[in-house]
Design a protein that fits this description.
The chain has 257 residues and is α/β, with parallel strands linked by helices. It contains 9 helices and 7 strands; from the N terminus they run H-H-E-H-E-H-E-H-E-H-E-H-E-H-E-H.
């Protein structure tokens, strides 16, 4: 499998000329807040309607795609990967985490047929507007004060999800600061084992080159996303062995240049 990842020392190649990037970002500054405020308020008005979650899911995906377009950021994934993900069921998605762009790029490139959601800390649900939107979009509320309770809540939510929906987990726990993948935590493997689901590893490449830590406005360029084959846990092996094997498979793709 070839990713054609770019060397971290190579200059970022913008995908639009400067004048077009300037126009797009001006539109984003002027109209973006109104557009995303509209998306935030939609659940308050429509969350109880039949079929709302599917409709709202597509609306949020389109919003992410428009945001990346206005930022002159292109997301690439092979057609074979898209076909695989469109038919993906009974999985937990794990992705590496290097930039605030990661969630947006995933929303943009994964086909509509594949539904996924994220886990969000309980404190974010305290605000009425955010809670209605998060619940409407199917986000999983997690109380991080207790690791045991958080795992139980997450596992229960995954077990109750329809087969076509997956929760997205960051095995590194937070954005990494190194050029390599960070150490993986066991959460995704534990959830997969308890729910009987497979793990669908997805590797995101070059997002940190466009928006590294400490930078507010991303550069224009291309982010590559690679979906790996399903990873099946070995219930007879120690959890740490599965975690190491999962990281090794993702590293094999991440390290290809």
């Amino acid at each position: 499998m070839t990713t054609n990842s770019t060397s971290p020392d190579a200059p970022v190649q913008a995908i639009d000329p400067f004048w077009l990037r300037l126009i797009k970002r001006s539109v984003l500054v002027l109209l973006g807040p109104l557009y995303f405020l509209f998306i935030g308020f939609v659940p308050l008005l429509c969350a109880r309607r039949k079929g709302f979650r599917g409709w709202y899911w597509r609306l949020v995906k389109r919003a992410c795609s428009r945001l990346l377009w206005l930022l002159s950021i292109r997301v690439e994934m092979s057609e074979a990967n898209k076909r695989d993900l469109a038919g993906d069921t009974d999985s937990v998605i794990v992705i590496n985490h290097r930039s605030h762009l990661d969630g947006f790029t995933l929303m943009d490139v994964v086909p509509d047929e594949k539904w996924f959601t994220f886990a969000a800390k309980k404190e974010l649900f305290d605000a009425k507007l955010l809670k209605t939107g998060f619940l409407g979009a199917g986000l999983v509320e997690i109380d991080r004060k207790s690791g045991k309770v958080a795992m139980e809540t997450l596992s229960k939510a995954v077990q109750e999800m329809p087969a076509r929906r997956s929760v997205v987990l960051f095995p590194e726990g937070t954005r990494t600061k190194t050029q390599s993948l960070g150490e993986f935590k066991a959460g995704a493997v534990l959830v997969a084992r308890e729910s009987g689901r497979s793990i669908r590893p997805i590797v995101i490449l070059d997002s940190d080159r466009l928006l590294p830590r400490g930078q507010f406005m991303p550069l224009s360029g291309t982010v590559r996303v690679v979906a790996l084959p399903p990873f099946h846990c070995d219930p007879e092996a120690p959890v740490d062995d599965d975690v190491a094997r999962l990281r090794a498979e993702m590293m094999a793709v991440f390290d290809q240049k």
